[in-house]
Specification:
CATH architecture: 2-Layer Sandwich
CATH topology: Muramoyl-pentapeptide Carboxypeptidase, domain 2
Protein name: 4-vinyl reductase 4VR domain-containing protein
CATH superfamily: Trafficking protein particle complex subunit 3
Helix content: 40-55%
Pfam families: V4R
Distance between the termini: 38 Å
Radius of gyration: 16 Å
Largest sheet: 4 strands, antiparallel
Number of domains: 1
InterPro entries: NO_sig/Golgi_transp_ligand-bd, V4R
Structural class: alpha+beta
CATH class: Alpha Beta
Shape: globular
Organism: Thermofilum pendens
Strand order of the largest sheet: 1-2-4-3
Oligomer: single chain
Number of helices: 7
Length: 188
């Protein structure tokens, strides 16, 4: 797949995401019942076209993600995933793999985290979409956002690039019925 193809895919996803936000496209309805297999099965056509074994790669990541020890609760796994993502983002900048905001999308694509779309970003705030994310693409609407790894990655990479504290909130997710993940960025 070429960069031009990826840019076209991202453009199509952005258009759909904007229609979802405006209410022009029906969101996925909440699921009262879902199985582990529902959570492991991705919907990542771009990455599956790139490598038909992407489903195995994603399932391995998600097995870890959804294997949270009951004794520790969901919050503990959220913290672990956020911290791992933040560390990856910081190290990507420190090692020179990400040198600019534009490099974030390339790095995320190459590492198969997802298709990053920086919708807007200025000195105070921003909005980033991730399509086909490793954490949530294809999961049912379970009533909550689940992309703690991606949220941490964006916090780490942006804080390292901008040399400022960054707060990242996931405001839309496959887990809440959308077909994209959206993250609001705020700089301190």
């Amino acid at each position: 797949m070429t960069t031009v193809d990826v840019l076209g895919v991202v453009k199509e996803y952005r258009e759909r995401s904007l229609r979802e936000v405006r209410g022009e496209v029906e969101l996925n309805p909440p699921s009262e019942y879902f199985t582990l297999m529902d959570l492991l099965t991705p919907e990542r056509p771009t990455f599956q076209e790139l490598n038909f074994e992407d489903i195995v790669y994603v399932a391995t990541f998600r097995l870890l993600r959804w294997s949270e020890p009951r004794e520790l609760g969901e919050r503990a796994m959220s913290i672990v995933l956020f911290s791992a993502g933040r560390s990856l983002g910081e190290r990507a900048v420190e090692s020179g793999l990400v040198k600019s905001v534009e490099d974030i999308a390339v790095f995320a694509y190459n590492q198969r985290i997802g298709l990053v779309d920086v919708v807007e970003l200025d000195e105070e705030k921003g909005l980033v979409h991730i399509y086909e994310s490793i954490s949530s693409a294809g999961i049912p609407n379970i009533g909550r956002a689940v992309c703690h790894f991606e949220r941490g990655f964006l916090a780490g990479v942006l804080s390292a690039l901008m040399k400022r504290k960054v707060y990242v909130s996931e405001v839309r997710c496959w887990g809440t019925g959308y077909t994209h993940d959206a993250f609001e960025i705020k700089f301190a």
